[in-house]
């Protein structure tokens, strides 16, 4: 595990790594730095872990029981504390969610938006799994 | 199969000409049948080349192969042409090359077959988008029986492996069109959790519009299909464990056991292209309206044909083409009249229909839409600009009007076109009905008598059934009865949340009686969706109340609230407070010294609580194990201050020291705390024990209050402080020690079983039918005959108790979760800070981040 954790971030490779199925499929372009988080096996389905990102940022990474993996910001925008990774996951009418463990506001794991307060949103991060290691995509500074 | 490949191709005694058919799909077969039935003089000899090993089968019904796995059930009737010497089918034989000059076809077996007429019926092949990893092991398409066999084998292996790893097996379908949804259903039937990724913002983008797509998505999601619309598939990477990691274009990722591509089809026109036949811009062999290609001896039918430049992905137009070519070969004049692309189908039990100009493409077309979110139906009609002629429409959820509506397409609508889709009958607002309208026809019950029953206090369906017998036969009237109830302002729902319709008490009964021990199992059988922060901890609590498994064991770990997950109380800055148990408020000097040292070493803020114990604030996640190790070493245990469970048993000093005391209140408090520690309940539970009537322990402000008398103990229940204080009420007097404990056992277990989520004992008693008298009867007289049961359940709890913290410290797996960052276990959370300049240490919160990082 130690070796994985210290694995250096890798940069996004040239376009071949992500082919376009149909025009316009890809999210915001721009190269990303892929920060190693942890082996997939370390994730408990339904729960999150916090991941330290470059420049002191932090993300909350979740594996859901159905196999989906999401990453959003870890700082609860209401409480100003790094606790989102410790929230409970679930869904609201099919939208995958996490609830802050502090005051229980519910956020979409897909878009980061607070469901009852569309003005507020957590940042979202791209996820990639390679050889069993989960990495998060962080835009280059 | 009556045909053989040995028989040489070519004219026989009667037939003078040979037609070679390439492809034995649905349309190829229809062509042969049409030709043979019309060619009464037997002028044509037919040779069919079939690439697939099976003779023509029902591809439209391909999905019904799942489950029965019986190929013969799908065979199209007459596909062996038994007894017809003029038809020869060569199975497993591909047409490799066409020589139009020489008029011969070369097969994959190397034979060369001469033709007078050639019919291309090669159909389509599934389009696989060139996503990196699309050819990984575990990627499939959905077109042939062989495809389904492959999917089946993979799915069965995945399910076995997933079960051994304690997870769900799942599959991803790329493409949310008609075929994609069929494939998703097949995966569901195979026992996988299906995901569907659709690039368009809605499912079935070709058939339905946005509104219909939204209703469809809701209906399909309710069936357990995970729908991801507006997302493409960016890459697929095989993992070392054989699973596939799929990256979606919205930045999320999925770990899946298999992938099925259903991203559209392309005409199988390769052989025709190589032979120099004209093909359409988007593929398909170009023909005129007689299905004749650019070579007068070559014809194209079915999905491979681009008739006047247009390909048809449905079987009915293909059949028409087959008839046209059969007619032409016999000198007829038939032409292809164009096709109606209306569709009506049942996908995963959901009706979907679209007809005519469904997308309102006609200039000036008007749309009239009716949506019923609760029923999950969507209906739209498209009419001409003068609102008189029906042009088309879409129906989702209920397509019963399809046949009628389709009949009206292109005609003038009688009256208001909106009425065509207005919901009929009982749904027509029950309140508009007169009192003598019969609501329940089975039992001849009128609206008047149902409303009368409601007015007299029947406040749920069961009560109405009881007093009017409405809804007791076929049940068809129940939705209307329910609506009358709702209209009258009766609150019906006891539902825990959107995922469980049951109340907590009902779920408790279900768990107790079915023995289901997992949240996923309970959800699958009794709930919907994937759960949320309301039902997960509730079910976790029920599971904990009914067994002694550690709350962080297996799947249960994922259900616990953050507090229970880290076995500590989360505070406003994300740090935790630590409260060791001090039964009855007793603590040894050694323990007190350790608490002080721990507080000093970890810089914790110390405060004595109202429950006679000590709270240590400001511990970071990764410090919790080290703190608890030291506390456990001096014999302290978790105080469960974080849980919905027994908190403290507060006591006065009692007869051992106090001159007024009549009983040993401390001794009793310590015994009670030891007995009930760790018991999970709907809400927190507090006890108090006072040594005489002076009540120094404030026991009557507790859920369970015990007050000494000179003959024994008085037992008070259902009191609390907090927002709505309540005095505990006397349940029984002058009890001896043993009876006291038995009564408390019964009382607590009865509460744990029947209370709602987060309902403390006082409101529970208020809501209890029969109130205190009923409770007395249940606890003291065993009026329900469940006392033994309740005591036995408590006995199991006492027996199985273990200190949650000690168990975690002994388990490296559980211990490894106590880190701030999974990728930097040594790092402390840099955002946690304290201010120690004032009279006491306080947390400093971050400024609230407002920028949204778009990644
Ligand atoms: C799961 C599923 C559900 C469907 N549901 C519906 C529906 O509800 N309604 C509807 O109208 N349509 C539906 N369709 C579409 C319908 O099945 C097709 O429109 C129809 O099968 C087309 O018939 P075809 O004979 O043109 O092509 P196919 O049925 O594809 O047959 C072509 C055959 O030719 C063979 N072939 C190709 N090249 C060669 C060669 N060079 N040499 C020899 N053989 C060759 C192929 O292997 C294939 O067996 C569905 C399709 C699928 C897959
Ligand atoms: S309740 Fe009675 S026994 Fe207990 S401390 Fe007060 S006076 Fe003494
Ligand atoms: S209509 Fe009421 S039970 Fe049949």
From TrEMBL, chain A:
PROSITE patterns: NIRD (PS51300), RIESKE (PS51296). Residues 35-136 form the Rieske domain. Keywords: 2Fe-2S, Iron, Iron-sulfur, Metal-binding, Nitrate assimilation, Oxidoreductase. Pfam families: Rieske_2. This is Nitrite reductase (NADH) small subunit. One of its GO terms (molecular function) is oxidoreductase activity, acting on paired donors, with incorporation or reduction of molecular oxygen. InterPro entries: NirD (IPR017881), Rieske-like_NirD (IPR012748), Rieske_2Fe-2S (IPR017941), Rieske_2Fe-2S_sf (IPR036922). One of its GO terms (biological process) is nitrate assimilation. It comes from the Bacteria. It comes from Humibacillus xanthopallidus.
UniProtKB/TrEMBL annotation, chain B:
Siroheme binds at residue 696. Residues 571-632 form the Nitrite/Sulfite reductase ferredoxin-like domain. Belongs to the nitrite and sulfite reductase 4Fe-4S domain family. Binds 1 [4Fe-4S] cluster per subunit. Binds 1 siroheme per subunit. Its cofactor is [2Fe-2S] cluster; [4Fe-4S] cluster; FAD; siroheme. CDD domains: NirB_Fer2_BFD-like_2 (cd19944). Residues 342-410 form the NADH-rubredoxin oxidoreductase C-terminal domain. [4Fe-4S] cluster binds at residues 652, 658, 692, 696. Residues 18-305 form the FAD/NAD(P)-binding domain. Residues 643-783 form the Nitrite/sulphite reductase 4Fe-4S domain. GO terms for biological process: nitrate assimilation. GO terms for molecular function: 2 iron, 2 sulfur cluster binding; 4 iron, 4 sulfur cluster binding; flavin adenine dinucleotide binding; heme binding; metal ion binding; NADP binding; nitrite reductase activity; sulfite reductase (ferredoxin) activity. It is an enzyme of class 1 (oxidoreductase). PANTHER family: NITRITE REDUCTASE (NADH) LARGE SUBUNIT. It catalyses: hydrogen sulfide + 6 oxidized [2Fe-2S]-[ferredoxin] + 3 H2O = sulfite + 6 reduced [2Fe-2S]-[ferredoxin] + 7 H(+). It comes from the Bacteria. This is assimilatory sulfite reductase (ferredoxin). Catalyzes the reduction of sulfite to sulfide, a step in the biosynthesis of sulfur-containing amino acids and cofactors. Keywords: 2Fe-2S, 4Fe-4S, FAD, Flavoprotein, Heme, Iron, Iron-sulfur, Metal-binding, Nitrate assimilation, Oxidoreductase, Thioether bond. Residues 438-485 form the BFD-like [2Fe-2S]-binding domain. Pathway: Nitrogen metabolism; nitrate reduction (assimilation). Its EC number is 1.8.7.1. It holds the Pfam family Fer2_BFD.
């Amino acid at each position: 595990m130690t070796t994985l954790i210290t694995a250096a971030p890798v940069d996004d490779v040239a376009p071949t790594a992500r082919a376009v199925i149909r025009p316009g499929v890809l999210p915001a372009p721009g190269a990303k730095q892929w920060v190693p988080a942890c082996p997939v096996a370390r994730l408990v389905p339904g729960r999150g872990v916090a991941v330290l990102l470059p420049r002191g940022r932090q993300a909350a990474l979740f594996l859901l029981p159905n196999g989906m993996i999401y990453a959003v910001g870890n700082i609860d925008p209401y409480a100003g504390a790094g606790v989102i990774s410790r929230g409970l996951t679930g869904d609201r009418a099919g939208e995958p969610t996490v609830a802050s463990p502090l005051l229980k506001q519910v956020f979409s794991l897909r878009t980061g938006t607070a469901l009852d307060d569309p003005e507020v949103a957590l940042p979202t991060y791209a996820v990639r799994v390679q050889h069993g290691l989960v990495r998060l995509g962080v835009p280059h500074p | 199969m009556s045909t053989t490949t040995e028989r040489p191709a070519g004219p026989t005694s009667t037939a003078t000409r040979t037609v070679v058919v390439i492809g034995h799909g649905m349309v190829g077969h229809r062509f042969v049948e049409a030709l043979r039935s019309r060619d009464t003089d037997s002028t044509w000899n037919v040779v069919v080349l079939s690439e697939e090993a099976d003779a023509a089968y029902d591809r439209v019904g391909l999905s019904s192969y799942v489950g029965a796995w019986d190929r013969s059930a799908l065979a199209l009737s007459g596909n062996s042409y038994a007894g017809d010497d003029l038809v020869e089918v060569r199975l497993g034989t591909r047409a490799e090359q066409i020589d139009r000059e020489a008029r011969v076809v070369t097969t994959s077996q190397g034979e060369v077959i001469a033709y007078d007429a050639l019919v291309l019926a090669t159909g389509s092949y599934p389009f696989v988008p060139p996503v990196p990893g699309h050819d990984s092991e575990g990627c499939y398409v959905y077109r042939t029986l062989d495809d389904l066999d492959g999917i089946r084998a993979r799915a069965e292996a995945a399910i076995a492996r997933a079960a051994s790893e304690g997870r769900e097996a799942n599959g991803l379908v790329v493409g949310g069109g008609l075929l994609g949804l069929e494939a998703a259903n097949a995966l569901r039937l195979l026992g996988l959790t299906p995901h569907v990724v659709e690039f368009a913002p809605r499912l079935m983008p070709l058939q339905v519009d946005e509104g219909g797509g939204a209703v469809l998505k809701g209906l399909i999601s309710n069936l357990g299909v995970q729908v991801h619309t507006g997302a493409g598939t960016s890459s697929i990477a095989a993992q070392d464990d054989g699973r596939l990691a799929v990256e979606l274009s919205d930045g999320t990722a999925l770990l899946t056991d298999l992938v099925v591509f259903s991203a559209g089809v392309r005409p199988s026109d390769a052989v025709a292209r190589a032979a120099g036949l004209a093909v359409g811009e988007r593929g398909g062999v170009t023909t005129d309206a007689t299905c004749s290609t650019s070579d007068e001896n070559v014809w194209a039918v079915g999905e491979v044909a681009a008739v006047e430049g247009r390909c048809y992905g449905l079987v009915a137009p293909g059949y028409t083409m087959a008839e046209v070519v059969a007619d032409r070969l016999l000198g007829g004049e038939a032409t292809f009249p164009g096709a109606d692309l209306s569709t009506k189908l049942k996908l995963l039990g959901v009706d979907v229909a679209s007809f005519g100009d469904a997308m309102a493409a006609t200039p000036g077309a008007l749309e009239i839409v009716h949506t019923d979110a609760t029923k999950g139906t969507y209906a739209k009609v498209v009419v001409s600009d003068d609102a008189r002629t029906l042009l088309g429409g879409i129906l989702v959820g209920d397509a019963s009007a399809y046949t009628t509506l389709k009949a009206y397409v292109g005609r003038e609508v009688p009256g208001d076109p909106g009425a065509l889709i207005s919901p009929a009958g009982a749904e027509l607002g029950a309140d508009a009905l007169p009192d003598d309208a019969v609501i329940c026809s089975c039992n001849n019950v009128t609206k008047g008598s149902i409303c009368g029953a409601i007015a007299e206090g029947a406040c749920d369906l069961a009560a109405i059934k009881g007093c009017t017998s409405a809804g007791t036969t076929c049940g068809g009237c129940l939705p209307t009865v329910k609506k009358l109830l709702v209209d009258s302002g009766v609150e019906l729902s006891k539902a825990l949340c959107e995922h469980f319709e049951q109340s907590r008490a009902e779920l408790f009964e279900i768990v107790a009686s079915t023995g289901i021990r997992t949240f996923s199992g309970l959800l699958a059988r009794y709930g919907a969706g994937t759960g949320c922060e309301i039902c997960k901890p509730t079910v976790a609590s029920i599971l904990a109340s009914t067994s002694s498994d550690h709350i962080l064991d297996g799947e249960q770990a994922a259900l616990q609230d953050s507090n229970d997950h880290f076995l500590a109380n989360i505070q406003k800055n994300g740090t935790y407070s630590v409260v060791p148990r001090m039964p009855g408020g007793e603590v040894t000097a050694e323990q007190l010294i350790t608490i002080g040292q721990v507080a000093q070493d970890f810089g914790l803020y110390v405060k004595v609580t109202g429950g006679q114990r000590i709270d240590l604030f400001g511990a970071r996640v990764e410090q919790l194990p080290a703190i608890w190790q030291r506390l456990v070493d001096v014999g302290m245990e978790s105080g469960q201050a974080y849980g919905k469970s027994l908190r403290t048993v507060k006591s006065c000093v009692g007869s051992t020291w106090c001159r007024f005391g009549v009983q040993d209140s401390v001794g009793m408090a310590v015994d009670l705390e030891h007995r009930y520690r760790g018991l999970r309940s709907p809400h927190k539970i507090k006890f108090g024990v006072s040594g005489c009537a002076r009540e120094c322990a404030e026991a009557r402000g507790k859920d369970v209050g015990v007050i000494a008398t000179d003959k024994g103990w008085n037992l008070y229940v259902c009191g609390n402080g907090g927002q709505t204080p309540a005095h505990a009420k006397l349940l029984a007097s002058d009890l001896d020690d043993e009876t006291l404990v038995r009564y408390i056992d019964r009382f607590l277990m009865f509460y744990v079983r029947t209370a709602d989520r987060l309902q403390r004992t006082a409101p529970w008693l208020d809501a209890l039918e029969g109130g205190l008298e009923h409770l007395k009867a249940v606890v003291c007289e065993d009026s329900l005959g469940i006392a033994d049961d309740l005591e036995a359940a408590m006995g199991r709890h006492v027996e199985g108790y273990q200190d949650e913290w000690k168990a975690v410290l002994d388990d490296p797996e559980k211990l490894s979760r106590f880190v701030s960052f999974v990728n930097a276990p040594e790092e402390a959370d840099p955002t946690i800070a304290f201010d120690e300049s004032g009279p006491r240490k306080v947390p400093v919160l971050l400024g609230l981040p407002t920028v949204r990082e778009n990644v």
